[in-house]
């Protein structure tokens, strides 16, 4: 990859919006995923294809009825329903939040997902400043929880510029950190039952030498 600037600044965040989809999922056991949407700059209306899923048919029925009748929904057409899954064409009267993202040069780069009153967004920006301006504007109107912010295609040279050191120094630091992380990972794995960092070390081991799992010295499971 050629040395250069960031190709995209990505932000994943959860938002609690005053919108029909969020209100429906806050009140009903249904998850709404929006793989496609289109915002009309002339009318401000947002055209959506919404996929709904629930633990059972009754929860799904309740959720899609609530979405159909929700304030702010100007059009609803059920396209498909099978079991506890359905697809609907929905038009919202307005969506100020997405307009804010677009006004700051951002883009929605993944499906929207509404669950338990929260909507997860995957956003892309040309730089961190545009992302910060968008989040600041949204934060004044809505409840936000940033999940992940990811600079893309960061180079050794640009990391060096950020830290005020040479790219050689950055490379050495990364290698040292990598060795420490790998060493810690091997040590942690070696401590798990049934794992040995040397695959040949147990070939002559005494089968009776294993610790009693009921012993007070037995380690608790450290799985995450």
From TrEMBL:
Compositional bias segments (type: Acidic residues): 195-205
InterPro entries listed in its UniProt record: HTH_bacterioopsin (IPR007050), HVO_2525_N (IPR056486)
Transmembrane segments: none
Keyword Flavoprotein: no
Keyword Cytoplasm among record annotations: no
Superkingdom field: Archaea
Regions of compositional bias (Low complexity) in chain numbering: 206-215
Domain HTH bat-type: 150-182
Start and end residues of each HVO-2525 N-terminal domain: 11-143
Region feature Disordered, mapped onto this chain: 191-224
UniProt keyword annotations, A-Z: Transcription, Transcription regulation
Protein name per its UniProtKB record: Uncharacterized protein
Species this protein is from: Haloferax volcanii (strain ATCC 29605 / DSM 3757 / JCM 8879 / NBRC 14742 / NCIMB 2012 / VKM B-1768 / DS2)
Lineage: Archaea, Methanobacteriati, Methanobacteriota, Stenosarchaea group, Halobacteria
């Amino acid at each position: 990859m050629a040395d250069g600037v960031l190709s995209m600044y990505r932000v994943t965040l959860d938002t609690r919006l005053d919108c029909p989809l969020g209100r429906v999922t806050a009140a009903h056991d249904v998850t709404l995923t929006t793989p496609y949407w289109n915002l009309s700059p002339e009318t401000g209306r947002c055209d959506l294809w919404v996929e709904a899923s629930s633990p059972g048919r009754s929860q799904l029925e309740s959720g899609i009825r609530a979405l159909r009748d929700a304030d702010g929904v100007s059009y609803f057409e059920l396209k498909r329903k099978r079991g506890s899954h359905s697809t609907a064409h929905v038009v919202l009267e307005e969506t100020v939040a997405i307009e804010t993202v677009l006004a700051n040069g951002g883009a929605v780069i993944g499906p929207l997902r509404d669950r338990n009153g929260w909507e997860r967004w995957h956003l892309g920006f040309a730089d961190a400043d545009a992302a910060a301006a968008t989040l600041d504007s949204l934060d004044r109107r809505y409840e936000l929880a940033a999940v992940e912010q990811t600079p893309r295609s960061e180079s050794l040279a640009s990391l060096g510029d950020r830290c005020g050191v040479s790219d050689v120094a950055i490379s050495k630091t990364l290698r040292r950190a990598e060795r420490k992380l790998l060493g810690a990972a091997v040590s942690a794995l070696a401590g798990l039952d049934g794992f040995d960092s040397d695959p040949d070390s147990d070939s002559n081991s005494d089968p009776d030498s294993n610790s009693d799992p009921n012993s007070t010295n037995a380690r608790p499971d450290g799985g995450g």
